[in-house]
Amino acid sequence: MVSKPYRFIMKEDFLHHLWLYKKINTTQLFTAEGQSLTILNFGQYTKNSGPDFFNAQIVLNNQKWAGNIEIHVKSSDWYLHQHEQDQNYDNVILHVVWEHDTPIFGKDNREIPVLEIKKYVDDEEIARYHQLTSQKSWLFCENQIAIVDDFVFTHWLERVFIERLDRKSKDIEKLLEETNNDWEAVLFCLLAKNFGLNTNGVVFFEMAKSIPFGVIRKEAFEYKYLEALFFGQANMLPSKAEDTYVLDLIAWCDYLRIKYGIKKPVLPQVQFFKHRPDNFPTIRLAQLAMLYHVQRNLFAKILTVQKNHEWYDLFSVSVGSYWKTHYTFDKPISRKQRLLSKSFVDLILMNTIIPLLFTYYKSQGIENFDSLLEILRNIAPEKNNIIDKFGSFGVKSKNAFQTQALLQLKNEYCNKKLCLECAVGLELLKK
Q1: Same domain, 189 and 129
Q2: pLDDT digit string (tens) for 323-345?
Q3: How much is the average pLDDT of 51-70?
């Protein structure tokens, strides 16, 4: 091959790409041992343990073979990975490598034919791959991503967003098992985590799991009981208090724990640091208690929502009278209503409602993905460093669907350097 003006380090995933997409010249192939080779079937690509491509078909010196194909950068990698001792590799009929540096033998001492493919790959393929994967400041494709066809990019964002929902649905399914498939209980736990935001989400989530949801169903008629139980189980009630209302909360919490046999969980202290007062954990937990006081059977109501404005009506709650004049216990301030803001409801929709509905529809065999996308397309795009960075490379977000998908793309593909598994990378390799 023609020598390159740059240093090129071959990687195995690129060899998989070349084989999977048949990016080699197959007109006149010879193995490293000098046998004539014809590829009838390149095989089925698999990422599971065992050979890389299953059920391939080749012809070696007019003899037809059917079996599996293993791919490595060097022939000696076969021994480095100890394939000669693994029965999963007994049916390998061809070892495809970039550099042939040693003969290869299977467990039965049969010499395995080797195809050294670097002499059959066009220089342009290597150049495009080098251009795509050479180190950049933030994305490998940051200088090219804006030129990717809109149709390809939009469909890829839908695909990665489904992957994001699939990942979240696994956690939801686990929670369903723990709650005997009680969708209302699962919603409560997920909402609690959402109300805790990134800082206190884990504490709020564990608080919610510590309370049998049947207790919330029974006590939701008394807002003060929900508030007492939520604050108590989140380890937020003070040991001493001056306000009568706070003393009452402590007493009510003790009463409810005894009544229902609820154990106090061991949880870390919630964090107030760097939060605006409206995001203080005290305010968010009081809002969660009010939500479950005024909206009983909340999951059933969610299933009936038809229009976007109905979401904001459903979550239009404030706090009890005490929290309209307090941000923390025993420290009164001027009166404020403290309704859930539209931007906070948007966070609830993105992080809780959409993943939960996706999981529910999947469990019921309902095809309703487009309606979930429509909800997100009516929500303003998120603002964070990742989205801003994409914007600086020409990828502008118009709505929350695009920002959610871009977060998944960055975290699960770009950060892991999976350019060859990304539709953007594959599209750029064609150009």
Answers
A1: no
A2: 999 999 989 999 888 999 999 99
A3: 96
- Considering only CA atoms, which of 280, 282, 277 is closest in space to residue 249? 282
Question: Is 220 in a helix, a strand, or coil?
Answer: coil
Q: What Cα–Cα distance (Å) separates residue 70 from each residue in 57, 93, 101, 430? A: 13, 8, 16, 25
Q: Does any domain span residue 86?
A: yes
In a domain, 188, yes or no: yes
Residues 280 and 221 in one domain: yes
Task: Identify the domain boundary among 340, 363, 393.
Answer: 340
Distance between CA 319 and CA 108 in Å, rounded?
74
The span from the CA of 316 to the CA of 311, in Å, is 9
**Hunting for tokens 């805790």 — which residue is that?**
196
Task: Please check the confidence at residue 2 and state whether its pLDDT lies above 80.
Answer: no
- What is the tally of structural domains in the chain? 2
Statement to judge: residues 201 and 304 lie in one domain? yes
Are residues 45 and 53 in contact, defined by beta-carbon separation less than 8 angstroms? yes
Burial class for 239, CB neighbours closer than 10 Å (0-12, 13-18, 19+): exposed
Are residues 333 and 257 part of one domain? yes
Of 99-108, 177-186, 295-304, 396-405, the range with the lowest mean pLDDT is: 99-108
DSSP-based three-state secondary structure for 395: coil
Which helix (DSSP H) or strand (DSSP E) does residue 301 occupy?
Answer: helix 298-302
User: What range defines the domain where residue 37 resides?
Assistant: 12-133
Q: What is the spatial distance between Cα 228 and Cα 245, in angstroms, rounded to a whole number?
A: 10
pLDDT of residue 108: 82
Q: Where are the alpha helices (H) located in 118-222, listed in sequence order?
A: 123-133, 150-178, 183-195, 197-209, 213-219
Task: Tell me the pTM.
Answer: 0.84
Say if 221 falls within a structural domain. Answer: yes
Per the document, the length of the chain is 431
- In this structure, what are the phi and psi dihedrals at residue 364, rounded to the nearest 5 degrees? -95, 0
Q: Residue for token digits 């490998």?
A: 140
